[in-house]
Design a protein that fits this description.
Blueprint (H helix, E strand, L loop, with lengths): L3 H14 L1 H4 L18 E2 L4 E2 L7 H4 L7 E8 L2 E5 L2 H9 L13 H5 L7 E8 L2 E5 L2 H9 L1 H18 L3
Antiparallel strand pairs: 1-2, 3-4, 5-6
Length: 165
């Protein structure tokens, strides 16, 4: 049986492989986000992750700014991508790319102090993207990722209800 990261990588590869087929389709709103998470965004203009491409963390291994040329409306926000292939991969499986806890800093969630993570301060653990407000929070997470995820997962429902969107 494959590990979660291996399965996630396989799903990402399949989504990217299907990108050529999907590029012929018109851009359409994706109807449901399986995670149901609130997403960190510039609320004034409705750009998710402040314009960073959520697929780039997995394909490029880092935070990359998306382009206005490759946008997708999803979950009432505009998402930007570096390429048509990245946009198509996200369209095919958004749940694989949306940051866990919607991009809120998991270490801050544990402390019941929700704060949006910065797209340039991130970690990928077990095939999921996590954003952090400060490098110190990222370091704390990396020291015990499984424990941090579990504690944040436990805190998230209560914290999520307190957020106004």
């Amino acid at each position: 049986m494959k590990s979660r990261p291996a399965l996630r990588r396989a799903r990402v590869a399949l989504a990217l492989a299907g990108a050529l087929t999907l590029t012929a389709l018109p851009s359409a709103r994706v109807d449901a986000l399986v995670t149901g998470e609130l997403v960190v965004a510039d609320q004034l203009v409705g750009i998710a992750l402040y314009g960073f491409d959520p697929v780039s963390y997995f394909i490029d291994g880092g935070a990359r700014v998306g382009s206005e040329s490759f946008e997708l409306s999803f979950d009432r926000l505009t998402w930007r991508f570096r390429s048509e292939a990245n946009r198509a991969a996200f369209r095919a499986e958004p749940d694989a790319f949306v940051p866990r806890f919607g991009g809120y800093d998991p270490v801050a969630l544990i402390r019941n102090a929700p704060v949006a993570g910065h797209p340039a301060i991130f970690a990928v653990h077990d095939g999921r993207l996590y954003l952090f407000h400060r490098p110190e929070n990222r370091a704390a997470f990396v020291a015990d990722p499984a424990g941090s995820v579990e504690a944040a997962r436990t805190a998230w429902p209560t914290v999520r209800r307190s957020l106004v969107h």
